[in-house]
Structure formats: C-alpha cells, structure tokens
User: Fold Clp1 P-loop domain-containing protein from Oryza meridionalis.
Amino acid sequence: MAGASPSARAEVVVPPGWAAATATASSEPAPPVVVVCGPKNAGKSTFSRLLLNSLLPRYGRVGYLDTDVGQPEFSPPGCLSFHVVDEALTDLLNPTLRECQRCCFFGDISSKRDPETYLNCLFHLYDYFVENYRSGASEPLPLIVNTPGWIRISAQSKNLPDGMFWLDCGQTGPNMINIDAPFHDALNRSLLIQKDSYGMRERRLIEYFKQCFSSDISLTTNKELAYALTSLPPYEVSISDVMVPPSEVRGCVSPYMPTNVLHRISERDINT
Assistant:
C-alpha cells in the first residue's frame, strides 16, 4: 500500500500485517483480550472492526470495551462503554451506534483533565466484563479494547515507547504484535491520515438524538433536529424516587454559597 492515496480508495484493502495480526489473535487457544493502542489517526478503530469480524465466526459473540471518549465506536462522544457484538460489521470504515451493556458518561473528549475519573470508569466497565462474561462463564467471551489516540508521554514524544515499556525487569507480559498504519509515504514510512474529528463527533451526536424519533420522520438539518427535540416533553423524576445511600453524602463548602447558609453548616458536616 506504499504511496497509496486514502481518498482514492473506496474499498477496504487489508494490509498483510493487519491480516496476520487478526489471524494470530483469532487462533489463540483461549478467548483473547486484545488492547489496540497507538497514536491518533493510525487506524486503531478500523483494525478493531476487522479484528471483531475475524473473532465472530469462532466465538459467536465478542466483547468490545470502548475507551476512546473523543471518537467512540458504538456510543456518543464523551462516554466509555462496553458492548457485546453478535453480528459482523458491514462497514469497516465508519462507526455505528449500538446498544451497550454498560456505559459511563465522562463528559469530555479527552481524559487529560480528569484521568482519575476516566480510569474509574474504565475499571468499572472492565470489572463488569470479567464478572459477567469471563469469570465462571460457561462460554467466556473474547474482548477488544479500543483506546484513544492521546498517548503522548512527553513534549518530545508523540507515540508510545517500543516494546513492553510498562513491565519491570524480569516480568513477563502478554503477546505483543506491532502493526503499521495502513498507508505509507514515498519513503515507506507510516502515514497518519488526519480526520475531521469535530465533524465526526457532531454527526455522531445528531445520529444519537435522532433515535428519539420514529425512523419515518425526516430530519435532514441540525435546525430541524433542534426544533424536534424542543417539542419533546422533558423527562421527569420525582424527588421522592431518588435514593442516595448515606455513605455517599459528603459535606462541601462552595465559594459561591451565601453566608446565611454557611453558618448553618457545622464543622462535623464539612469533614465527613
């Protein structure tokens, strides 16, 4: 695929390295857990779709943990989600909305502002997968983990270090397969293709909110969708139906809280 122009290709051409990697993962004796990582615009999502399709004939169902909050595969932007997919993806070039098993709303398109909350969401979803589809399951599922492209570890480096850099000396790690981006320049170097991330997120949100309406309703512009959404009655939850465990209640002091409220808060409430 050296020298090929991405815009000139309408069909999906699988590089030999990608085909070999999917064949290796699909032939593992036990259902594999595959973490797909790399820089932005390297083809992680496309490879994940290809891998999912290659695992389905053997296992029938495949777990998919999407941790890319900026450009998720099956959910709206700003979310981490876990899915169980039981049918092949017919479009390997574009993401599609799918119903999830579990979803965590993170509220940002990058994890860098709140990595702790991001990791808590990730661990929650992975624990759910292990508990329900791995530990003690009669038919354990394979898992694909799609990761974000924000992997910069320093101002000088835009990619991950080579090898299993996260292991200490003497530790053994998983099977690691290096694959190149699908396109190359004239010097046969991996070529990262820039995508319209903003436009992709906007289209994904539009498709997400269109699910509120019947498929026979034509909504072709953002303005039509906005008018249609404002016509829907708001979702209401009675305050009496909201249950908060006592252990989850914490006292806090806001800098915008009026003084006539501050003096009513005891020191014990603030420190709990």
The helical segments are 16-26, 44-59, 115-133, 197-210, 222-230, 259-262, 267-271.
